[in-house]
TrEMBL record:
Pfam families hit by this protein: JmjC
Subcellular location: Nucleus
Assigned keywords, A-Z: Iron, Metal-binding, Nucleus
Protein name, UniProt field: JmjC domain-containing protein
Keyword match Metal-binding: yes
Higher taxonomy: Eukaryota, Sar, Stramenopiles, Oomycota, Saprolegniomycetes
InterPro entries, per database record: JmjC_dom, Znf_FYVE_PHD
Gene Ontology annotations of biological process type: regulation of gene expression
Length: 319
């Protein structure tokens, strides 16, 4: 006998509209309770705009929130179990913030860029000229000179940074590398060819989605807590979409793992640690959540085999 965690009603597993073989672990809610929960929420799906933060103020808030929520530092497994306990409980509400889709063109990238390296090199040259060639022409109280002299910069350091600025793994360079179809575009499209930054806190979530135009994506975790990713292979995208169309948002959100199993959608997970890349393939649905404060950066690319996937995306957009 299967008992609803909401109304305490009893159900035979084989009498459900979608029969199941055994009683699922954890809380379970009948379709009547789920429909009532959905009806009570008239808001459109989406996210509210949060407060403005500096990176330091966001980290302070994220760390304080997590410290207050957990008595002791949790493991990745404990975090994941608690995340799904919250998601599957319609009466449990928490509020977190997520710095999502932050434009690196405006706010800066976590990777060095050639323009910044060249500025550093020019400052070194100017410092050399100021100190060694004409110190008598400069006011010794000049603040700019003092600032440059105080910096522990040398040409060797700048050359090391230059190596990272020109690396093919630098996400500012990767979309336009030889072999990427995006190199033929003349416009720098934000979020596609210009990376976006993502500043997370515990339980902040990136929902199920595929990339625009079925592009490949690559995400780099600069620092902080891990991310937990879930992915569906591209060959199962149609099945995933069929399941999502059949189920109400409330039904899908309340018991996602159960419904994926019932409908035969393969779902895989990965733990994304700092200094690691995660790559998603065309038409592969992915989503997940952050395990604490972290800083990540992501961009798209398109190898020649993407062309067929891109054509499929265009046809879908026309429907």
């Amino acid at each position: 006998m299967l008992r609803c965690s909401g109304c305490s009603g009893g159900y035979h597993t084989f009498c459900l509209s979608r029969p199941i073989a055994c009683v699922p672990p954890g809380d379970w809610y009948c379709e009547v309770c789920i429909a009532e929960q959905v009806a009570q929420k008239s808001e459109k799906f989406g996210f509210e705009t949060g407060a403005e933060h500096t990176l330091a103020s966001f980290k302070a808030k994220a760390d304080a929130w997590q410290l207050a929520y957990f008595a002791t530092p949790p493991s990745v497994q404990q975090l994941e179990a608690e995340y799904w306990r919250v998601v599957t409980n319609p009466d449990k509400k928490i509020q977190v913030e997520y710095g999502s889709d932050v434009d690196t063109g405006a706010m800066g990238s976590g990777f060095p860029t050639l323009s910044k390296v060249n500025k550093l090199r020019n400052r070194l040259v100017n410092r050399f000229n100021a100190v060694h060639e004409s110190p008598h022409l400069l006011d010794p109280t000049d603040l700019a000179l003092k600032r440059v002299l105080a910096e522990d910069l040398d040409m060797q350091t700048v050359n090391q940074v230059h190596k990272y600025a020109t690396s093919p793994w630098n996400l500012n360079n990767l979309p336009k590398l030889n072999g990427s179809m995006l190199q033929y575009l003349n416009e720098d499209i934000k979020g596609v060819m210009v990376p976006w930054m993502y500043v997370g806190m515990c339980f902040s979530t990136f929902c199920w989605h595929v990339e625009d135009h079925n592009f490949y994506s690559i995400s780099y975790l600069h620092r902080g807590a891990p991310k937990t990713w879930y992915g569906v292979p591209g060959h199962a995208a149609a099945k995933m979409e069929s399941v999502m169309r059949k189920l109400t948002p409330g039904l899908f959100g309340s018991q996602p793992d159960l419904h994926m199993q019932l409908h035969g959608v393969p779902v895989y997970r990965a733990t994304h640690n700092p200094n690691e890349f995660i790559i998603t393939y065309p038409s592969s649905y992915h989503g997940g959540f952050n395990n604490g404060f972290n800083l990540a950066e992501a961009v798209n690319f398109a190898t020649p085999d993407w062309i067929a996937w891109g054509h499929t995306a265009v046809q879908n957009y026309k429907k």
